[in-house]
């Protein structure tokens, strides 16, 4: 594997994931598993006025999945569901070689650009962002159903 794939920054991110631990009463929760490598992410989100006010994560992933989770969790508080979805879609495009690294709130995804050379690793790298999109969609649906939005 390439040195760039596991750069010192990727390893630093993987070793330091903020907001580890699930929330007591989340508005939305997602549990995602990569069938290829067995990585798992469980993620909780609480929203207020359309923005993430709290998030928690239980990552059981490879270094690339943990680095991605770390980037997500460093910047998720204050993000909207649309920002999370746009970051996930931009990240996916970057991995497929169809676009640049995402800018803005989730700019650190550029550190995972080397993953594009390893298509089997794309799923694990995207796992946390896929979980965040799903959890935020569930949170919005739950709030709509209870009249909170």
Compact overview of the structure:
The chain has 149 residues and is of the alpha+beta class. The protein has helices at 8-14, 63-75, 81-95, 122-145; strands at residues 28-33, 40-48, 51-60. A hairpin with a 6-residue loop joins strand 1 and strand 2 (40-48).
Structure description:
- The chain is an alpha+beta fold.
- The chain has helices at 8-14, 63-75, 81-95, 122-145; strands at 28-33, 40-48, 51-60.
- The chain has one domain: Alpha-Beta Complex (Sufe protein. Chain: A), CATH 3.90.1010.
- The protein is built from four helices and three strands; from the N terminus they run αβββααα.
- A hairpin with a 6-residue loop joins strand 1 (28-33) and strand 2.
- The protein is globular.
- The N and C termini lie far apart (47 Å).
Map the helices and strands.
Elements (H helix, E strand, L loop, with lengths): L7 H7 L13 E6 L6 E9 L2 E10 L2 H13 L5 H15 L26 H24 L4
**How would you describe the shape?**
globular
The largest sheet, given as strand count, sense and whether it forms a barrel, is: 3 strands, antiparallel
State the distance separating the first and last CA atoms. Answer: 47 Å
At the first level of CATH, the class is Alpha Beta
Please provide the count of β strands.
3
Instruction: Provide the gyration radius in Å.
Output: 15 Å
Across the major sheet, the strand order is: 1-2-3
The CATH topology label is Sufe protein. Chain: A
Given the structure, what is the number of helices?
Answer: 4
Unreliable segments of 5+ consecutive residues: none
Class of secondary structure makeup? alpha+beta
Helix content: 25-40%
């Amino acid at each position: 594997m390439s040195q760039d794939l596991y750069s010192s920054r990727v390893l630093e991110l993987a070793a330091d994931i903020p907001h580890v631990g699930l929330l007591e009463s989340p508005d939305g929760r997602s549990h995602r598993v990569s069938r290829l490598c067995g990585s798992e992410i469980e993620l909780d989100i609480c929203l207020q006025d359309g923005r993430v006010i709290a998030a928690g994560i239980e990552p059981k992933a490879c270094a690339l999945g943990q680095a991605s989770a770390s980037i997500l969790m460093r910047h998720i508080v204050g993000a909207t569901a649309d920002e999370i979805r746009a970051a996930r879609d931009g990240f996916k495009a970057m991995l497929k070689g169809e676009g640049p690294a995402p800018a803005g709130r989730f700019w650190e995804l550029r550190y995972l650009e080397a993953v594009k050379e390893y298509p089997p690793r794309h799923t694990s790298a995207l796992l946390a962002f896929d979980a965040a999109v799903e959890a935020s969609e569930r949170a919005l649906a739950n709030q709509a159903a209870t009249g909170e939005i």
